[in-house]
Amino acid sequence: MISTRRTAVLVGLLFLIATATFLIADALIVGVLDGTNYLVDAPANATALTTGALLAFVDGLAIVGIAVLLYPLLKDHSEPLAHGYVGLRVAELAAILIYLATPLLVVTVGDGLADGTVDQSASQHLSSLFQAQHDVAIVMVYLFTSVAGLILAYLLYRTRLIPRWIAILGVVGYPVLLIGTVLDMFDVIDVTQGAGLLAVIPGGLFELILPIWLLAKGFTTPDQDTAPTSVNPTGRTL
């Protein structure tokens, strides 16, 4: 059985990997999709698009790995919520697969435009379609992230496996992300730019501070919370 300390280190590393891979992947993909004629230029940007897709896949594996590692620690406090957390992370992986399909489709269509197997007149419509697919996938990812993150933060707060001030950051931050995501679905804001990014910041801070704490301190165990007092031969506590 993996020790609690090792679990904390692995979870911390996976959180950092998930955050880094997602940020880099989106920067690579958006950097191409923001181009005026990005489908025509796709063959030249195939490396960036493919790398972005692979990094997004690593992100998805990392978040599922986090859920699997945390499950034994969380299920003793609420098995239904622990099951729900794992299930939502798996659903988030499915959303990430939709997300990473966009750059791969762009590469395929771009190659088709280059060799003439895809009609040039379709490029404008396909261009808008792929951008919309990317935007929808981002919203789906954030939707699952916000609910799963709220469950995790609540359980960490309840179990005191980490300092409660860190857990509170997640308990507050993920509902903010959820509200922002819902507003994005109704075209009120865009969580990927402008003022909409404010919805991402609190949860993002939680996902940065939590792994740093886990790597440095690990989880708080019951023994650490209630360390027995020592008694010297005179009968006085130390």
Explain how this protein is built.
This protein is an all-alpha fold and 238 residues long. The chain contains 7 helices and no strands. The chain has one domain (4-169, 205-220). The two termini are 34 Å apart. Mean pLDDT is 91; it is low at 224-231.
Kindly list the characteristics that best describe this protein.
7 helices; 238 residues; mainly alpha; single chain
Would you spell out the secondary-structure blueprint of this structure?
Layout: H1 4-33, H2 46-74, H3 79-115, H4 123-159, H5 164-185, H6 201-216, H7 222-225
Short structural summary:
By secondary structure, this protein is mainly α. The chain has 7 helices and no strands.
| Strand portion | under 5%
What shape does the CA trace take?
elongated
Mean pLDDT: 91
Number of domains: 1
Largest sheet, if any? none
Written as H for each helix and E for each strand, in order along the chain, the element string is HHHHHHH
Total E-strand runs = 0
Q: Which oligomeric form is depicted?
A: single chain
Structural class: mainly alpha
Q: If you compute it from the alpha carbons, what radius of gyration comes out, rounded to the nearest whole angstrom?
A: 22 Å
Q: Helicity range of the residues?
A: over 70%
Tally of separate helices: 7
- The first-to-last residue Cα distance is 34 Å
The unreliable regions are 224-231
